[in-house]
Amino acid sequence: xxxxxxxxxxxxxxxxxxxxxxxxxVGDRDSARAVLSEAEQRHAAAxxxxxxxxxxxxxAEVSVLESAHDVDWGHVHALVRAAIxxxxxxxxxxxxxxxxxxxxxxxxxxxxxxxxVEDEAKNxxxxxxxxGQEIDWVRQRGILQRRVPHTDQTDRAYREVALSPGxxxxxxxxxxxxxxxxxxxxxxxxxxxxxxVDVDGQAPSDALxxxxxxxxxxxLYILKERTRRTLSASASASDASQLLRGxxxxxxxxxxxxxxxxxxxxxxxxxxxxxADSVHWAGRARSSLSVYLSAFRQQYAITVEDGRLYxxxxxxxxxxxxLDRVLQGVVEHLRQSLRADVxxxxxxxxxxxxxxxxxxxxxxxxxxxxxxxxxxxxxxTYADLASQVxxxxxxxxxxxxxxxxDARLHRLLESERxxxxxxxxxxxxxxxxxxxxxxxASVCGVHANTVRYRLQKIQELLGLxxxxxxxxxxxxxxxxxxxxxxxxxx
Length: 490
Description:
Layout: E1 3-6, E2 19-22, H1 29-41, E3 46-50, E4 63-67, H2 73-86, H3 100-111, E5 115-119, E6 124-127, H4 137-145, H5 152-163, E7 168-170, E8 178-186, E9 189-198, H6 207-245, H7 250-253, H8 255-260, E10 262-270, H9 278-295, E11 300-305, E12 308-316, H10 323-338, E13 342-346, H11 356-372, E14 379-381, H12 386-396, H13 398-404, H14 407-419, H15 423-432, H16 437-444, H17 448-462, H18 469-489
Parallel strand pairs: 1-2, 2-3, 3-4, 13-14
Antiparallel strand pairs: 5-6, 5-9, 7-8, 8-9, 10-12, 10-13, 11-12
Helix pairs in contact: 2-6, 3-6, 9-10, 12-18, 15-16, 15-17, 16-17
């Protein structure tokens, strides 16, 4: 196999003998037949269609492959290129001695303006470092935060660049310089964009053409970086899956986990359930977080299981990692990059790599509680909510509920309706106040004698003795579980 190409009717000449063709955007069988015929005429090795599109296609000399609907075309492209390069075949156009930073510097010198190269999610991939070139706050903040700041003007500009077939010129605004920009594409897929700061219109007359000529090389570098990142993410996902399960020689699969000492498992899901798109959301979040965490040199492993994003963080033997700061940064990054709020459950911190499955179980239990209880924080640690998790575990156990299913409590609940007396709230306030009648009266907004009268009626009705520690324990557990059910319904 000589290479991989996205199919594009405007550039079919790019398909050469031995190529593997990705039929991006081909969604019906008539179009699939036309693509297959064209690929056969150009002696391609194979064509990859979405699952179901290739059903009933005629036999051809070109092999027909299928890709699942939930697999991103860019991911397929990266994996195929990685396989080709691993087999020793050099992919044309990729100079292993150069990268996007070198290209940014070349363009910056020729266009007389500082350059930024970004991916499709506005994450900074590379920037020029030519001395003496003037910049503004947008570029400065973008480099510092590794992402372009979100404003109405920048959003409109990105939409215009993405829709334009060629380079675009933007005039200066009050607080920022003008810009030259061009979309970077491969086979119709938007990979990112390149931006040049244009100070007082100093860019030469051929700067737009220079940008247009740089796009193909930029796309090759971005795809090369995707390949590297995909292979790294795949290894990380494999490490994370094994670490979460405690399967095999997990320490040998993640050297950092062996060195880190203490670690913790974190599980993230969208605050608003995306339904069938949850797996896709988690995949996008994994890719975005991999870039973010790598930039900060954080020891991590990350994977996706059942629409949940699992993140394992190495905290160091002396717990030197500021876990709260890292998690706040993760949440803010996902909010900006995916426009999504998340629920974050942090498991038990464990001292060794072999105990990560225990941390994962505690994170899963905590997540179950957070999803049931919207009154609790959206970012929480097991250590902070251990008691609530244990009560939730008890509530989820059918056997425990059967053992605590007490006819006396049902009589108490029924007795409130005709009498209008808040027996349950009074009893709960009394137990929460550790038997302090005055404090319970204050919580209920009644006189202390009223509380005493209600407690006497409750004991008569239920046939229990609140002075008995066993009776107090049982009725308190029943009331706490009842409160949890009420919060879950809320």
